[in-house]
Amino acid sequence: MSLTPETSGLPTPPVTPAEASAPSDAPPSLRPLRRLAADMACKRLPSDRLDAFLKPGLDLVAALREWFGTDIAHFTDPQSLIGALERDIAFLDDMLTRQLNAILHHRAFQRLESGWRGIAYLTQCAAHSEKVIIRVLNVSWSELASDFERAPDFDQSHLFEKIYSQEFGMPGGTPYGVLLCDYEVRHRPTTESPVDDVATLSGLASVAAAAFAPAILAASPRLLGLEHFRALDHVSTLSGLYRGAEYTRFNRLRSIDDARFLGLVLPRILMREPHTFDGVAGIGFRYREDRHGLRHDEMCWGSAIYAFGEVVIRAFEQHGWFADICGGRRDALDHGIVEHLSAPSVETDSPGTVERFASELVIPTQIEQDLWELGLISLNVCKDTSRLVFYTSSSLQNVPDYRASAAAANARISAMLRYILCVSRFAHYVKVRVRDRIGSYETAEACERDLQTWLLSYCLGNDDASPEMKARYPLREASAEVRAVPGRPGAFACVLQLRPHFQLDQIFTTFKLVTDLALHVQRPVN
């Protein structure tokens, strides 16, 4: 990253009448400092004169003579001198603005800034929560891919050790609830991203399923065959997108059971408005980031995983349950509504009068439906407001095409991330509860009775109960079956069947969890 601007990209300071007739090849020592300051600051000329000029204690008259040189004799009144100084200050402000923008709009810096702003965004959402713990793991996508490539199997990777073994699988550990992964993934390697995303996603899905911690990532526009998401405005349909040969491996990934623990969100969100400083905010000069206009790619865009994280954090803080993280009401802040994103104001009105939305585009209804069918989570605009909302929470898993409509609906519901998040909480508690009691159960039947009693304390058979009651008793039905593992004294195999409170055209889905209570990895089964 270069911090030195090119001369051709900078404006030139105003020229006085005397300078217009002065020889341009005059030695630097004889030219006014105002004509040389930029080159000296950028080290294209020796900076001794500039350093001496900036030292404190220089007499005002001497400073003016050094800055204007012999031209100072042509300023016959204070107002003309003040006007020349103000023009020079404006020139320096503009030069510094271009330099600072060259840094802020560099792709590497944008990536760094959006990531840190995303973390700050999550901590703001959880600032008043005593339940939510945010942990940050600094690892690049290529490092994650190398971790899975070098491991003989996913459960021998460093990520599995950190996510599962050190927390979920260890006495006293705190299981992770969700993994927000700030990466953009594609269906095949490209020149700019040579990593095998599909293989890495497969390993990540296995780790997420083992730890019952769904992993949420960002979808790249390349996954949809686009250069940028704004092109969705000009697409009539995405139906059949995955039928091409280039999606063969990606479809194979979508067909595995662990894919229900993966979620891909889109499009990007605006992490901040353009900077504006009036010179008194501590940076020492007047700065307006969009002074010369901003292209779309010069805005600070970030991953929508952070918006999804806000919705999950709010649901966990309010209810400890995730069944209602989609949709929303215009007059309420709940469900899938995103609150804390900063929406820029329309400049034709006073600031805050009319706000734009903080995502890259408004997704058309048909395209939103197609994205849902493709297993992608879209962040859209709530109608007649500037707020954003998640209307869907589909996982990446490709739902099998059953002939019976009831079976197809059941399969689709069981692949929804909001219900995966729900049953994962029970998986965490079952693991911890049984782990803390290992050795106290004399028989498998005793373990089963204990689990059954505990599960029934979360069940409510009334389908007409209020949302508050259903949040307190989130299960419609639950059962536990525990049996001894042959040849392994003290080891039990457990099957849990959980039916959360939801109903769709008289269709109900039961989530089935199969686990070995004495060993390592639990697995969800429909």
From TrEMBL:
Residues 87-397 form the TssC1 N-terminal domain. Transmembrane segments: none annotated. Residues 1-29 are annotated as: Disordered. Residues 407-517 form the TssC1 C-terminal domain. Residues 1-10 have a biased composition (Polar residues). PANTHER family: CYTOPLASMIC PROTEIN-RELATED, TYPE VI SECRETION SYSTEM SHEATH PROTEIN TSSC1. This is Type VI secretion protein. It comes from Azorhizobium caulinodans (strain ATCC 43989 / DSM 5975 / JCM 20966 / LMG 6465 / NBRC 14845 / NCIMB 13405 / ORS 571).
